[in-house]
Amino acid sequence: MNESLISKINKGIAKSFQWMRENQTEEGTWPVPYDGPMFLLPLYIFALRICKKPISSTTQRKMSNYILRHQLRDGSYGMHQESKSGTLFTSIINYIALRFLGLEPTDAEVKYTLQWIHQKGGPLQAASWCKFILSFLNLYSYKGVAPVPPELYMLPSWFPFHPRKISGYVRIIYLPMSYFYREKLAIEADSLILALREELYQTPYESIHFAKYRGNFAIEDDIVPVTKIYKISVWWIKRIDPLIPRHFKKRALALVYNHIRYEDEHSNYIRQAPVNAVYNTLIHHFRGDTVELEKSWEKLPLYLWESEEEILMQGFTNTFTWDCDFFLQTLMETPNAEDLKRMALKTRKFLLKNQVHKELPSAFKYHRLPRQGGWTFSYLDNGWVVSDCTAEAIKGLLETESYGGEILTDANLEMAIQFVLLLQGKDGGWTSVDKAIGSPKLEWFNAANVFVDIMIDHSYVECTGSILQCFATVKKYRPHLYTPQMEEASENAIKYLLNSQNADGSWEALWGLCFTYGICFVTEGLRMAGLKEDHVAIQNACAFLWDFQKEDGGWGEAQESALARRYIQAENSVVEQTAWAIIALINGGFQSDERLKKAINWLLHQQGENGDWPVQPMSGLFYKTVMIHYRNYKRYFPLLALQKYRKNSFDS
Prior knowledge:
Strand order of the largest sheet: 1-2
Shape: globular
Number of helices: 24
Number of strands: 6
Distance between the termini: 9 Å
Structural class: mainly alpha
Helix content: 40-55%
Mean pLDDT: 94
């Protein structure tokens, strides 16, 4: 190994640790905004106005700044901050949000957006989710909304379309939507709403036959066209609905509200994510539930991130657990320096404190799984435990026990392992928050238009890779807890991953971009599970990556890869994607390859003197159409890659 490269790597690692020391909070975290989607902040703004919450001029200005900064050149707004084209869905709701914040239709940016909206056909051609939002704003009619009947909750649990068979991420949003739909909840049409009706529609609002436009979608919003079978089901639902007895509808509504209250109470009113957090809050407003509404508004601002010039709404309240999992893992191979020990102990304390110990009461009744032992994506209070968040927390905690302090006890580790095992699917892969019990054919009934593969929580290669790493770590550090059940689960997971590999050698991830992310987590999992570096699957994955190395030595996968389902080159190399590729290629035994040295040099060249890396394009992914910032990825993944390269180069 070239001595000058050793020196540069050591210096880069030292600078990274210096950044970590200077930016760690006392509780052991590294706070960053978790932003990207352009449909979140408008919902919060709508909730403020509907609930008549006061909003200062400073807040108005900062929220407007955020929205306007992400306006595209043609006046539209995309699904996320870095979208190259707009959708009616996001353009319309951001237009309304700006009007709610006090901007006028004559303001240049607002006027430009409205012109684009009109060119694309206006709200009548918008995605189903947009039409639903407009309905409770009294800017559209529920007659033109895709039906969300709460009576589905009254069906027997074995029924193929029962909500419990749908992914928790989606089910928890459609839950309050069904309440809105049945009660036709909407705000009063005040002067601003009347003005917006005139602005958004090019024909008189009262003359519009909204039901006629239920299935009409502009090409910009028709990313996932509804299926013929879904259209037939809507036809039947609309005709059956009037025949449902009133008392049955009333019982269904009460059942749905009971589920809403359950979600509120067992997520400490934080809820699963921001969309259902807003919707549940509005349910309480329309019902006049003053106590529940007050509790909602105590927690809803947790989703906001405020800077000097902007306010945005995050995809979760924070990324603390997920980020701490990986920051802690960077300390695994490090000499036990006193300052690094203090840093590690704080993060270990945070993770240990945020393991979920309290079990859900009557979990099955409310379509939830046991959660005891798991970790959430953010804080303990959220209550929605996640398979790979749990696996990476276990890995980090076990790898850093040599620092001393409180440890993850055998009892708590066994509890966590049992939770993880629960989420393994029949195919051998792991889901994220639910057990895959619904048929993949439920995707035929995806009516969101703008999200892909949302209906069931199926197996994900990246989650499966994380769990394989976790089980291998348990086997190494707590061998007395490594059971035949874990061994069998690992064997089945390996089979799943080998069967899931594409013919070109890649693995496709869903929660990160996309092939680079998948290959990184899978190869790390397979190697830790015992596969050799020369295994044909690992070598094929490495060959795939080599084909896409850029001239400068890095890797850059374009956001379009997700929807196209094939690797598309980005214009520039990306720090975290290059780190993922380096980790994968070291797993393939390429640590002495000159091409990998070139990648290491490129990565080191990007690092600033303060140990940080410049802002990177978004590499996080949400259902193939929405990108999201994981702003700490550029920090811990390069550090992990450099450490892995240093260790393996010395060993070789």
